[in-house]
Every structure is written in structure tokens, then in C-alpha cells.
Amino acid sequence: MVKIRNIELGEFPLLLAPMEDVSDPPFRALCKKNGADLMYTEFISSEGLIRDAVKSVQKLDIFEYERPVGIQIFGSEIESMKQAAEIIENYGCPVKKVACKGAGAGILQDIPKMVRMTQAIVKATNLPVTVKTRLGWDDDTKYVVETAERLQDIGIEAISIHGRTRKQMYKGDADWTLIGEVKNNQRMHIPVFGNGDIDTPEKALEYKQRYGVDGIMIGRASIGYPWIFNEIKHYLATGTHLAAPGLKDRVEAARDHLQMSVNWKGEVLGIAEMKRHYTNYFKGISHFKDYRMKLVTSTDLQEVMELLDYISAHEEEFVFV
User: Fold this and answer.
1) Residue 92 in this model has a pLDDT that exceeds 60
2) Which pTM does this prediction carry?
3) Of 60, 93, 145, 236, which one is the catalytic site residue?
């Protein structure tokens, strides 16, 4: 059983990565429904929280069905990050965790500062603190094995590592070799989660066996495809594949996502922010361009819902390619 303090996450947990403009409450609800064990919020600015900025505070909206959930904060000033952690704890959510991403990946250029900042956050809150990081800033600064040790020593309770450097962004293949070294370092005793390029159940099993990580964090592969969590779990347990979601499943997910977005942010903003997701939900379907254009241009909730109903009822018109 993998635990972060007293929070049980299962034998091999699957985590939803923090993604700006993606991992909001409606999207997290869909991922939770489809098997995610632990989810992270979008990136929340420490400076924004301190200044009570509406956008930053709204990202602290957490619903009971999501728990446990991690709050992903970032910033460049140690005092601001410390204050943000205190604000989150006082927000009154006992099973939240505080996740520190430093000043984004930029702090990988100053590991001592990263350690000092994380230590200040650990001291500022009674909540368990985790860190999400990359291998290093560039190919010459891949210090993640040493850095993970130092962060563990000052009190973090789990670490997630993306198998690329900051300079790589999302280019090239993720290199899990150093993630495996962190996990297999005999000094490490906290959970180590791997992240990067896991987009199939087969790859999840391969990397689990090859690198020995305690769980996997999934980001881009879940966008428009929240089913990936249960698909991986099923494959790990049985060696067989779940049936892929059909068009009706995709429409249902899009409808639920849209309705939750509207409930959370209101009709105008909920409809607008949902537009970025339709391409992903209906990716790989032939003869869908005209319908996609209608979905992303309509500003009327009833019209969008009726269009989704039509698509679902005329499944025979569409083919997955």
C-alpha cells in the first residue's frame, strides 16, 4: 500500500498531473470517476494567493468527491511560498496536500534555494508536502538523484519526477533512467512517482517493471481521454484491454464536463473554457470537422447540448480513424 503520511493511495496509484487550464474541478471529476487515485490542481500562484486574487483563490475550490487532492503552488520568493502554504492550510481542508513546484522549473537553476524554499513550506504547514520536479534545468544539470535525497531529508513526503529537463519542455522522449535511480537509491524511503510519456497501458506496465516506481503520474495522455486511468489499472490487473470508449461515451464525457464547467464558473465562462476540450474528446473521428466548428463557435448552452445529443444519436455517421 502506497501512503503519503496517512493517506492511502492503493498498491500502485495513478496520479493526475497538474496542468494549467486543464486540471480544474470539472476535469478532475471525470478523471476521478475513471480511476485517478490522486489529483493535483492547476498551478496556483503564491503571490496571487497572498494578494487574494480571484483567479488564484478560485483554484482552491475542492469538492468532497475529489479527495485526496494536491494543491499545486508555485512562486519564486521563499516567504511568499511559505505564506501561501499557511493560507491553504487555513482554508480548512484536512486531507489536502501541499505540492511545491518552486518557481516552476526555473528553480532547478538554484538547488540550494529550492531546498530552502521547500523546507520553509514544510515548517509552515501541518499538511504533507510533496514536490514535482524535472531531471534538471538542462543536460548539464541533472542533479535529481541528489536533490531528491536533500528534499526528503528536510521533510517532503513524496516526489514526482518528470523525465525531461526544463530546457527540453515536452520535446524528445522522456528519460526515466534517473527516475529509476531515485527510486532505487537505498536512502530513499518516500514514494517516488514517475511522469512523462505514459500514454498506453503497455507502457505503464513496462515502466513499472523496469524502473520500480511507486506509481505513475499522467498528464497530457488524459486530456480528452480520462479513461486512461481505468484502462491502465485493468491492464495491470489482468493483462487484457478494456473496450475503448465509443462515440456515445465520448459525448457523455463531454456533456458532463460542459455541465460541470457551467455549474462551476457560470454559463458564459463555462462554455468558453470548454471549447479547448472538444478537439481532444472527438480526436480521430472522421467527418467531424463541421460539428467541431459548431461546438467551438456556439455560445448557447442548449444549442451545444442539442448538438451533442444529435452526435450521440447518429453514431453510424462517424468512423474512428
Assistant:
1) no
2) 0.92
3) 93
